Amino acid sequence: MLTSAARARLTVVLCGARNPANIGAAARALHDFGFASLRVVNEFAAPFEAAQLGAAQLEATTAEAAGRSAVRAGHILAAARRFDTLAPAIAGCALVVGTTAIGERELTQTVLPLQLAAPILLNALAAGPSEPYTLNPEPSPTVALLFGSEKTGLTNQQLSHCNLLTTIPLFHPEGARHLSMNLGQAVAVCLYELTRAGLEGARELPVLHEAPATAADRDRLTQLLLDAMHATGYTRRYPHNATEPMARRLVQQLGHTHREAMTWMGILRQVLWREQGPES
Predict the structure, then answer these.
(1) Which residue from 26, 118, 191, 275 has the fewest beta carbons nearer than 10 Å?
(2) What is the pLDDT of residues 199-229, one digit of tens each?
């Protein structure tokens, strides 16, 4: 299970993101999977500021596209940091992981599919920082997960900063040249893979507490099933399938809970009523 402290050690870095809606979608993915640190590397502040403004408007009224994509993640965009270049954005990180769709570029580093790279990231997140313990309850990010721009992905220069490269496996239709995902979707897929085994603070699924069917329930249901077989003529037409042992085996599959058994009894009583009339 990925703890909140481990999640705080990860920062998502968007390099050259141009579309404010994509920045907002990445922030929403961070929020949905329990992460908080977002950094944007872009010498032009306009896309980042537009995403922040859109999220702020959403908090107050109805927002534009950028705000809608960042629903419930305004606090992440408000705390996000912008850098002109990549080096200062990852300066404190011991592990820097770059995502790439590969395309037609020549790579000089091994690329791991996401499902094989995820355990490496998780081990680094669990290990924590190597520096001595401090009183800061929020550990600084020590693992950076990099995503490139919507148009070109990470550049070769940006990839050279990475200790590890990973890619999301994609279907490759015949004739396709450039396989890639939407930036916000790619962030969501990667964070899901990191939290797939469970995360601290996840929403608990409701548990149904239903009484199991009893032996008495199954006996009554078996008798009703035999009666229905007889009333509809099934016993006469298919005698080998209408024995009591066969009916009992069927009943074992019909009513696992008391409520299910009672429902099947009601159905069979309706069948009998239709076949025999109300007086039965």
Answers:
(1) 275
(2) 888 878 777 788 999 999 999 999 999 999 9
Report domain extents, the chain.
4-195, 215-276
What is the secondary structure of 35-84 as a DSSP string?
A: --EEEEE-S--HHHHHHHHHHHHHHHS---HHHHHTTT-HHHHHH-EEES
Query: CA-to-CA distance for 280 and 160, rounded, in angstroms?
Result: 83
Paired tokens of 185: 């979707």
Domain 4-195 architecture: 3-Layer(aba) Sandwich (3.40)
Structure tokens at 212: 């199991």
More confident residue, 274 or 278: 274
C-alpha 17, offset from chain centre: 23
Percent of the chain past pLDDT 90, that is, above it, reads 62
Q: How far apart are CA 69 and CA 29, in angstroms?
A: 10
